Amino acid sequence: MASKTYKELLSELDTFLFDVDGVFTDNRVLLYPGLDPVRTFHSRDAYAVQLALKEGTRIVIITGGKSAGVEESFTRLGVKEFYYHVYDKSAKLDE
Fold first, then answer.
1. Closest C-alpha among 69, 71, 75 to residue 84
2. By C-alpha distance, which of 14, 31, 18, 15 is closest to 84?
3. Looking at CB atoms within 10 Å, which of 3, 23, 28, 88 has the fewest?
4. How far is CA 57 from the centre of its chain?
């Protein structure tokens, strides 16, 4: 029996789980006086998230950071499961 190709295996996925820093960002944080740290996101990532949600894929974000701007950005993209300020990501995943 032939094993499945990676495309066949990927087609079976229904959920993607992501952290934020180093995944959606390039690890740079811009620091401006009087403002929360600013992270930059790539527009292609935003497009991919929107497309995945449109296709029915569940997107879950678990991050240790706490940023209203980051949460707002993912909410605007349509992500409904966003967990921030999580120190034990494995425990949150098990939950």
1. 71
2. 18
3. 3
4. 12
User: Residue 61 and residue 41: Cα distance in Å, rounded?
Assistant: 14
Q: State the DSSP string of 11-23.
A: HT--EEEE-STTT
Per-residue pLDDT reduced to its tens digit, 16-63: 999 988 888 887 888 999 988 888 888 899 999 999 999 999 999 999
Going from the C-alpha of 16 to that of each of 21, 22, 45, 52, 55, the distances in angstroms are 16, 16, 13, 9, 12
Residue 56, Cβ neighbours under 10 Å: how many?
Answer: 7
Prediction pTM value: 0.81
